[in-house]
Amino acid sequence: MALPFALWRTLDLIDGTRDAAEVARLAGLSAPELRRRLHEAQGWISRAEDHGRPMTDRAAQQVTQCLTQVVGPVAELMVEEVLDDLGEAATLSALLSGLTAELTPGQTARFAGHLRSQGLA
Length: 121
Known about the structure:
By secondary structure, this protein is mainly α. Helices cover about 70% and strands about 0% of the residues.
């Protein structure tokens, strides 16, 4: 999983032997800033876990809404087609990969922005 450098740098200091105060000192952070970064890391982990879970109807609806803002009403057909191709192995990550393969780079960037606003990317 790709992380922002500042977050990765902080997490790299956590080794199971250092306490929070030592990690904060080594990272040059205050205790509240360390807590904020750890909370941010939990968000990244949650999103990564969500991407590997089987698709839910709610997630498919959210993706369809985001895609509709980019390609219009054909989004529903695109999502259904990719989900049909994936079958039982459908995950959010696989769905997003299948959809972005059909988009131009500009559409992909806009789609990613909408996904981020929904907490899906």
